[in-house]
Amino acid sequence: MISFYDLNGYKVDLSFEKDRFTIKPQHVLVLAKKEHKWLLTNHPKRGIEFPGGKKEVYETIEEAAVRETLEETNVVVSNLRWLAEYVVHDVSPFCKAVYIAEVEDIHTGSTIYETDGALWLTQEELEACTNLSFHMMDKGMIAILKEVRVHEEKWNDR
What we know:
Blueprint: E1 2-5, E2 11-15, E3 27-34, E4 37-43, E5 47-49, E6 52-54, H1 61-73, E7 75-88, E8 94-106, E9 118-121, H2 123-128, H3 139-150
Parallel strand pairs: 3-8
Antiparallel strand pairs: 1-2, 2-7, 3-4, 3-6, 4-5, 4-9, 7-8
């Protein structure tokens, strides 16, 4: 387990071991690539980040990952693979599940909610980006991206 403080000052515990925490994930973060480019979105308040959000009461955490990605980017993802979970010890602590996903389809003309839509960046462009969301710059994201590289040969990068 990796523990650190995020840029908002909250303690965060990150684990690459499933079900490590007593708090069940109610939030998701989705990492997907297509043609060697990361799928990101530009949130008008937070900046550039991977798509994600909160689970609705009627859906599974995997369904939330698919829905949130579609709502924020117009991209349909499939073949979700669990990668990690982390707990943010906020005033109301919460757990977020991190998934790797494959890009299945890119919709055009659909409505985008909460963000400016899909943004596709290479690893180099992501590393050079100056408008990243706060959580894209913390120790947890560094560890998550490192773990993705370990498993990248399994990635379905079309």
